[in-house]
Amino acid sequence: MKKLFRIIESQDWNIEDEGDSYRISKYSNAGEDFSFSISKGTLTEMKEAIIDYAEDFDAGEHAAFWVEHRNVAGTPQSIRELLDDADSIDKMLQELSEKLEEELK
């Protein structure tokens, strides 16, 4: 597990133990405290859970969720900024996924 955690942290993500799961988080370019959780399991199971999450992430859906919260508690007002930020989150996830694939074959 240490290698998995080291890879996650090397990509500037944080990982926190939440009992039965781990919360993986990172601030986006627009300052969103973005996070997702994976269940505890074997190294392979957790690696695959992260890769699956990255593959399933929908930047458009993520931005659409935040549209109704624009200009509230630091959420950007601009729809363009929300879309760009969601795209940057997608890129962060893809980079993490690629690093895991590369280092945990």
List key phrases describing it.
4 helices; alpha+beta; single chain; 54% helix; 105 residues; three-stranded antiparallel sheet
Notes on the protein architecture:
The chain has one domain (about 1-105). A three-stranded antiparallel beta sheet has the order 1-2-3, with helices on one face. It is an alpha+beta fold and about 100 residues long. The longest helix is centred in the last third of the chain and has 25 residues, at about 80-105. About 55% of the residues lie in helices and about 15% in strands. Helix 2 runs antiparallel to helix 4. It has helices at about 1-10, 45-55, 60-65, 80-105, and strands spanning about 15, 20-25, 35-40.
Shape: elongated
How are the strands of the largest sheet arranged? 1-2-3
Put simply, the count of helices is 4
User: How far is the N terminus from the C terminus?
Assistant: 14 Å
User: Beta-strand level of the residues, as a percent range?
Assistant: 15-25%
Could you estimate the helical fraction of the residues in percent?
Answer: 40-55%
Q: What structural class do you assign from the helix and strand content?
A: alpha+beta
Overall pLDDT: 95
Number of strands: 3
The biggest sheet, with number of strands, parallel, antiparallel or mixed sense and barrel status, is: 3 strands, antiparallel
**What letter string, H or E per element, gives the SSE order?**
HEEEHHH
As a whole number of angstroms, the C-alpha radius of gyration is 14 Å
Total tally of structural domains: 1
Unreliably modeled segments: none
